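Anyone up for a design puzzle?
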């Protein structure tokens, strides 16, 4: 993650996740938009917000946000492209680079696959002679495993995904 100027953001690759950064205001708690492309003839760019429910217009969006808040309704995220449209060259943005996004997606996929505790390097299965079986991260396997245990590597990281070994 890093903080960049509007000019720097406009040069970043499509798909860059970002949030507006204002010094002195609360730190952004996550990306709010996806950068799509620069509009080079004006101080603007195309983006997609990722913080609102899908809706056919502003009134429906506000109604759906209220339904979500008050009644627990669920709607898909609105991924409709638009423009930033602020024309303010002094704005700054917190951006997540490709490696940040890959790490976030890997972590989320790991938990959705119910793989247990997250580890960024590998997961191991330790089988004891008495039949007991444990799972451990790469950092912990050496502390847990005994000399007569069988240690199997189960998963390893390959760029943005985890593969079974």
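Challenge accepted. My sequence:
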């Amino acid at each position: 993650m890093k903080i960049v100027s509007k000019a720097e953001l406009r040069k970043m690759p499509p798909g860059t996740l970002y949030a507006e950064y204002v010094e002195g205001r609360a730190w952004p708690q996550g990306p709010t938009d996806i950068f799509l492309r620069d509009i080079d003839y004006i101080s603007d760019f195309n983006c997609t917000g990722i913080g609102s429910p899908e809706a056919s217009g502003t009134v429906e969006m506000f109604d759906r946000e209220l339904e979500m808040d008050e009644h627990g309704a669920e709607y898909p995220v609105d991924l409709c492209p638009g423009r930033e449209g602020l024309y303010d060259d002094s704005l700054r943005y917190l951006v997540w680079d490709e490696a940040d996004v890959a790490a976030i997606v890997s972590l989320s996929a790991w938990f959705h696959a119910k793989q247990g505790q997250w580890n960024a390097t590998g997961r191991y299965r330790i089988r004891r002679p008495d039949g007991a079986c444990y799972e451990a991260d790469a950092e912990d396997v050496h502390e847990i495993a005994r000399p007569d245990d069988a240690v199997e590597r189960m998963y390893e990281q390959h760029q943005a995904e985890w593969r079974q070994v």
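A detail worth pointing out: The chain has two domains: 2-96, 103-164.
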